[in-house]
Amino acid sequence: ESLVRTFTPFYFLVEPLDVLAVRGMSVIMNCSAQCETPPRIEWRKDGSFLNLVSDDRRQLLPDGSLLINSVVHSKHNKPDEGYYQCVATVDSLGTIVSRTAKLTVAGK
Questions:
Q1: Where in this chain does the record put each Ig-like domain (predicted)?
Q2: pTM of the entire structure?
């Protein structure tokens, strides 16, 4: 008898796009992934995972998007500018990584 291995669809519905943010304003990096088991969404900035649990400025929205409140940008401190990726994980299936989106900050 043949063993039929069912394929479970797991994919991004929305991936982040390059965005121009304004200092002091909020910005959203969009991301949403689809799977029958809800994926765990995390964000990487410049290759490192963001710890959003203790972050008072950045938060993960219910759909997986990243909200940055009050973008910070000064001559010596540019914590928000950089390259972002959305990482979706379903433990039984694995991990998918979105395209890389660049966040650039414009001065006022």
A1: 9-104
A2: 0.91
Q: What's the CATH code of the domain at 58?
A: 2.60.40.10
Domain that holds residue 41: 10-106
pLDDT in tens, 44-91: 999 999 999 989 999 999 999 999 999 999 999 999 999 999 999 999
Q: What is the per-residue burial (b if ≥16 Cβ within 10 Å, else e) of 13-24? A: eebbeebebeee
From the list 68, 82, 8, the residue with the least C-alpha distance to 38 is 8
Tell me: the pLDDT tens digits for 9-19?
999 999 999 99
Domain count, the chain: 1
Is residue 5 in some structural domain? no
3-state secondary structure of 73: coil
Whole-angstrom distance, CA of residue 21 vs CA of residue 28? 9
Name residues whose C-beta falls within 8 Å of residue 76's C-beta, 6 or more positions apart in sequence.
none
What the block records as the tokens of 10 is 């797991």
